[in-house]
Design brief:
Layout lengths: L1 E10 L8 E6 L7 H11 L4 E5 L8 E6 L4 E2 L3 H14 L8 E6 L2 E8 L2 E5 L4 E4 L3 H8 L4 E8 L3 E9 H6 L4 H11 L3 E7 L7 E7 L4 E4 L3 H13 L3 H4 L2 E6 L7 E8 L2 E6 L1 E11 L1
Parallel strand pairs: 2-3, 4-6, 11-12, 13-15
Antiparallel strand pairs: 1-2, 1-18, 3-4, 4-5, 6-7, 7-8, 8-17, 9-10, 10-11, 12-13, 13-14, 15-16, 16-17
Length: about 280
C-alpha cells in the first residue's frame, strides 16, 4: 500500500497542544475499512479520518471517521480538523470560503471565516431518558432537569449539572458508564454547566469509554448535542444564540468551541493548527 500523506491537527485552539488532536490520512483511496480501523486503533486518538474522492459531484471531498473501536457517520472536531488539513495540503480550495464534505451523515456545508471553520451541523433528533437516578449514580453528581439522548450522528446522553464547578469536579464511574452506553446504544455522556469565567458561557465535558475514549478532550458532536438540548428544553434564549464553550481543562487542554443557533440550524465553529505532518508507511 506504500506511503500516505498524514497530518495531526489540533482542533478548537490556535495554539498547539491546547485542543483536541485528530489524525488525518490525506489519501485514503484503496484502504479497506479494516485497514482504516487498524490505523485508528494505532493512532489511539479519539478520531482518525481518511480523505477520499467524493461519491457525489455535489461534494468537494469524502471523509470516513473512526474512533479506536468503530466508524462514526459524523463527528465535529474531525470534520473541522480535516477541513483545515485538506485546505492546507492543497487537496481542495474553498469556493467563496465554502466547502462541502461528504460523510456517513450526508453532505455537510462548511464556511471558512478567517481562522475559524464553521460547520452546519446535521439536524438533531432526541429521545427521552428514563433512568436519571442511574445516571446520577454513574456520574457521582446530581443533574438538573431531564437528561435526554440527542442524536446528531453520534448519540450523546446530555445532562445539565448546573454550574462549571460541578462539571470540573466530576469523576464518573467509567466502567459503569461504558456498560450503560452499550446498553443504550449511545456514544457516551456529555455534561455541561454554566460558566462564570467571563470568557465562556458553558463548561462542557464528554465521556465515551465504550469507544475507548475515557474522556474526549474537546468534543464537537458533544457540544452540538448540548446546543440541541438547549433548544429542545427552551434554555437557548438564556444562554444566547452565539456563545463559547470551554472544554479540556481537566486533561491539560483549553479548547474553545464557538456555537451559533440561527435560522433553525446549529453551527459549530473552531480554529485548528497542524502539529505533525509527514507520511504513514503501510504494509
Amino acid at each position: 500500500m506504500g506511503t500516505r500523506r498524514f497530518k495531526q491537527v489540533d482542533v478548537f485552539t490556535r495554539l498547539p497542544f491546547r485542543g483536541n488532536p485528530v489524525a488525518v490520512v490525506l489519501d485514503g483511496s484503496g484502504l479497506a475499512a479494516a485497514d482504516m480501523q487498524r490505523i485508528a486503533a494505532w493512532t489511539n486518538l479519539s478520531e482518525t479520518t481518511f480523505v477520499l474522492p467524493p461519491a457525489s459531484a455535489d461534494a468537494d471531498y469524502g471523509l470516513r471517521i473512526f474512533t479506536p473501536r468503530a466508524e462514526l457517520p459524523f463527528a465535529g472536531h474531525p470534520t473541522i480538523g480535516s477541513a483545515h488539513a485538506v485546505i492546507e495540503a492543497g487537496v481542495v480550495r474553498p469556493n467563496g470560503g465554502k466547502l462541502r464534505q461528504e460523510c456517513g451523515a450526508g453532505i455537510l456545508d462548511l464556511q471558512v471565516e478567517g481562522e475559524t471553520i464553521w460547520l452546519h451541523a446535521p439536524g438533531a433528533t432526541d429521545t427521552a431518558f428514563s433512568e436519571p437516578e442511574l445516571l446520577q449514580k454513574v456520574l457521582g453528581s446530581k443533574v438538573q432537569g431531564a437528561p435526554r439522548i440527542m442524536n446528531v450522528g453520534p448519540r450523546w446522553l446530555v445532562a445539565d449539572l448546573g454550574d462549571a464547578g460541578r462539571v470540573a469536579a466530576l469523576a464518573p464511574d467509567l466502567p459503569a458508564l461504558a456498560e450503560m452506553s452499550q446498553r443504550l446504544s449511545i456514544g457516551g455522556v456529555t455534561v455541561y454547566g454554566a460558566s462564570a469565567d467571563g470568557e465562556s458561557a458553558l463548561h462542557v465535558r464528554s465521556f465515551a469509554p465504550a469507544h475507548g475514549i475515557p474522556e474526549d478532550p474537546v468534543c464537537g458532536s458533544g457540544n452540538i448535542s448540548v446546543a440541541a438540548y438547549l433548544v429542545k428544553t427552551g434554555q437557548a434564549q438564556g444562554i444566547g444564540k452565539r456563545y463559547v464553550a470551554r472544554q479540556g481543562m481537566q486533561l491539560g487542554r483549553d479548547g474553545r468551541v464557538s456555537m451559533k443557533i440561527e435560522n433553525g440550524g446549529i453551527f459549530l465553529g473552531g480554529s485548528a493548527v497542524t502539529c505533525v505532518e509527514g507520511t504513514l508507511t503501510l504494509a
